[in-house]
Amino acid sequence: MDIRPIKTDEDHEQALRRIEELWNVKVNTPEGDELEVLTTLVEAYEVKHHQILPPDPIEAIKFRMEQLEMKKTDLAHFRQQEQSIRGFKQKKETDYENDTGS
Questions:
Q1: How far apart are CA 79 and CA 72, in angstroms?
Q2: Angle, to 10 degrees, between the axis of helix 57-67 and the axis of helix 72-100?
Q3: How far is CA 66 from CA 2, 59, 73, in A?
Q4: pLDDT (tens digit, 9 = 90+) per residue, 32-53?
Q5: 30: which residues sit within 8 A by CB, 6+ positions away?
Q6: What is the mean pLDDT of the chain?
Q7: What's the pTM?
Q8: Residue 73: CB partners within 8 Å, gap ≥ 6?
Q9: Angle (nearest 5°) at CA 8 between 5 and 11
């Protein structure tokens, strides 16, 4: 087992290739230990050098809509459902208040 710190993108690529080779090894073996150490090193390197920021919420919605082949008008259906549910809840609360004299 020749494990060294990951300092460059080339080191990172080599570690990823080795992880792929070790992917199906048994746990608690020398190869399993090597896999565990390499994945820890790769994760630390990626957090430091290739951090992925969370997406913009609007862009995430647009992306998901594109994946589902939805149009903006398809969202109107959900909005109408939400308004119907909200109206139903308000009517139910009003009816309860009227029945209890609150």
A1: 11
A2: 110
A3: 45, 10, 13
A4: 999 999 999 999 999 999 888 8
A5: 1
A6: 86
A7: 0.54
A8: none
A9: 60
